[in-house]
Amino acid sequence: MLLFYKNFFIIASFLVVSIAIALIILGLSYRVSRTSSDLEKLSTYECGFDPYEDARNHFDVQFYLVAILFLIFDLETAFFFPWTTSVSFLTANSFFCMVDFIFELLAGFIYAWLVGALEWS
């Protein structure tokens, strides 16, 4: 039982010391840092050009939907590269697992197409 409390004390002391060091570093960074607020630092940045509209305009969510679908299908196609290089070394079970993966990828693409997620209106 004494060993349990000794281990607990060591872990608790590490936790206290790490939180203290983090707070000291955070406090010193606010205390030591120089802040100069000139007009260029406080201006908005938009690709090097001055902003010409309000930033709170209506933004179409379909941009995000297309980006997410692209990322999903792009990451899934990254699984094809190792499979194509080692297709001659695969067993029948692993080959049919990859065929199942391709089928599920195709089913997801057809579902996104039928739902209308790929149509731009």
Compact summary:
The protein is mainly alpha-helical. It is built from 5 helices and no strands.
Task: Provide keyphrases for this structure.
single chain; about 120 residues; mainly alpha; 5 helices
Could you describe the 3D structure shown?
The chain is mainly α and 121 residues long. Among the domains are: 2-31; 62-115. The chain has helices spanning 2-32, 39-42, 62-77, 80-85, 92-115. The radius of gyration is 27 Å and the shape is flat. The model has no long low-confidence stretch (mean pLDDT 81).
Question: What is the helix tally?
Answer: 5
Quote the beta fraction.
under 5%
Q: What is the overall pLDDT average?
A: 81
Rg calculated over all Cα atoms: 27 Å
Write down the overall geometry. flat
Catalogue the unreliable spans.
Answer: none
SSE pattern: HHHHH
**Major sheet summary line:** none
